[in-house]
Task: structure prediction
Amino acid sequence: MGLKIPPEIKFAQKIVRRHQLVPPFSVKEIIEKYATVIFDDIPGVDGVSLNIKVPDKTPTVVVNSTAPKVRQRFTMAHELGHIIIPWHIGTLIADVADGIELSQSEHEAAYAYWELEKEANRFAAELLMPQEWLSEQVPRYENIAELHEFVVKQCNVSAWTSAIKLALSLPPHIVFCAESNNEIQYSGRSEGTFANPLLKGSFFSKDLFPDSYYPYSTDHYTWRSGGNNIHWWRLPSTIDSTTTDIRNWKKIQEDIIVDISYSGNITELKHSLNGIIGSANSMYMRLGDDYNAEGLVAACMQRFHNRDEVTKFVEHPDFKIFLQKRAVDIINKALSK
Ligand SMILES: [Zn+2]
Result:
């Protein structure tokens, strides 16, 4: 995607190359080449690193032996990050456990303010799921849920950690979420996707499913992991922009507003519609694809769904025609300049 590779990722890639690591591999064997590793019951703490970059001393890493195995593995990879990344200096780094199942908010709350922790986490994710290896697996699977399950098993990582990493390797226009107990547990999207991920903590209804979530998606894949249902959707990058409807977009907009007996402030609604179309248009232009009506309809479709303020408007049967007309109008105006 032409993104700059962060230095901590490059350090992880160096370790992957040096030891020719291909999942599955033993992280313990690798970290033992760099540190003395002790497994002990250290309540409330994932791991501790001592004597990092202290001259003439071998670092010591203590891993909480009561944590689940998958978590201990991630901790070892994380502590190796502290040992390898040159600017991680200190005699002692303690990594406070933030809950058994690493959820998005817990993780963010514990780590967001500490840049070194995020770097060690990105180092760990790259070590356990090397980008190069991952990009070889992506084209092998049409079904993203199967790909995800394969990565989780092969790399022995949590579904959440691997979903975040996997999303970085997937093409644009893909969203995912994990839900259980009618609630979104975590979510995300691949680079270049216009649609927002479903909000963490928001209500997820099985009764409404699948029609209420990305109903315009081209594919939906699902699997189960750790009590969560994990969903992946492929969204269209283009949608046909031709229609036989003779009305212009303004007329269609008026007709829909009348049809849905909109009870709120109509000026504000129109303002919202314009705002969403404007943001979809600029996101689409920034992506740098061919600028055409088919692409703009798809971009708008992705931006419009799962927004409370325009739900009724979006659910109207003529909504797509409205977008088609609007997109053609915008493109024609842009091209005539
Ligand atoms: Zn740490």
Notes: Residues 132-234 form one domain. Residues 78, 82, 93, 95, 117, 120 surround zinc ion (CB under 6 Å).
